[in-house]
Amino acid sequence: MVIIMKPQATQAEVERVLEQVRSHGLKAHVSIGEERTIIGAIGDTHAIATEVFESLPGVERVTRISQPYKLASRQFHGWDSVFPLDGFRVGGEEVVVIAGPCSVESRSQLLETAQAVREAGAHALRGGVFKPRTSPYSFQGLGEEGLEYLAEARAETGLAVVAEVMAIGQIEVMARYVDVLQVGARNMQNFALLRALGEVRKPVLLKRGIAATVEELLMSAEYILSGGNERVMLCERGIRTFETATRNTTDINAVPVLKRLTHLPVLVDPSHATGYAEYVLAVARAAVAAGADGLLVEVHPEPERALSDGRQSLRPEQFAELVRQVKAVAEAIGRRLAPQPERQAVL
Ligand code: PEP
Ligand code: MN
User: Fold this and answer.
1) Is the CB of 132 under 6 A from ligand 1?
2) 10 & 126 share domain
3) What is the pLDDT of residues 110-135, one digit of tens each?
4) Do 290 and 324 belong together in one domain?
5) Model-level pTM?
6) What is the CATH number of the domain that holds 118?
7) 345, pLDDT greater than 60
8) Sequential DSSP letters for 269-302
9) 207 CB under 6 A from ligand 1?
10) Is 238 strand, coil or helix?
11) Same domain? 307 vs 208
């Protein structure tokens, strides 16, 4: 349920509504807009009459959110969410590009890739240190050693860093090193992990599950949002279909669908969505043309030697071309690439 206060409502009137919300065993979520305050009453509201709130002073109207996800819904939050990260913003008018290797493999591999993607125009660096590999015998990631390299790359390039968290027990150490916690496709419905991430004060990049619907993706976002963490970015990374010519099938439809249903930023990962470096550029252009707020792209200095996902990784010069082309696409639809973060001084 959403309680929309009158523009001139007083603080005392807002407090009164909050008390009423809590007295029904609901959680209150307050958004203070430029013009008015909006209060989300979160929980099982179906047996509560809207009049309970409509009759209070300062209340303009009360609406029910028809979708099963509430905080993620545009009915709850009409304007796009914009999250400031280090030196740039995700959401809103600007398009961002997050790039880096699938896995952090060594100090030199990461630092070389970080410099290259920075020079090519990336806004943030990605790199997995705990890897969700299909085979238990494949490279599983460097763990905390990899986090140290990410922190070093961050200090050298000024790029915010993004890495995947696979388990609740990894959250604490990861939150010390990274700017954005990624939830991978395989963990999209790990509800215990999502709940734990609701308590963290770091943005979460939530990837769509291999066989998850748009609604299921939004319900997973709702787990994180309802825990009090408002900074969730969604990522379409391809879904599994009957098609075998590519690793996954990019659900490009999901971009405008999500943009209509939710205020959260929507990214696309053309690397996992296609599985082949030669298709990444075309799908990256399509994603931005469809309205994506950003891209997540795998880049490796020597893809043929990569310990994971080499087949879909771009060489730095191919990535630089991708940035040039998606910049042109963004401008063609009245958006622009976000300015790159300032380079931080190395301490
Ligand atoms: C990744 O980003 O490296 C990754 C494992 O992605 P996904 O969870 O989408 O497969
Ligand atoms: Mn990968």
Assistant:
1) yes
2) no
3) 999 999 999 999 999 999 999 999 99
4) yes
5) 0.94
6) 3.20.20.70
7) no
8) -HHHHH-SHHHHHHHHHHHHHHT-SEEEEEB-SS
9) yes
10) coil
11) yes
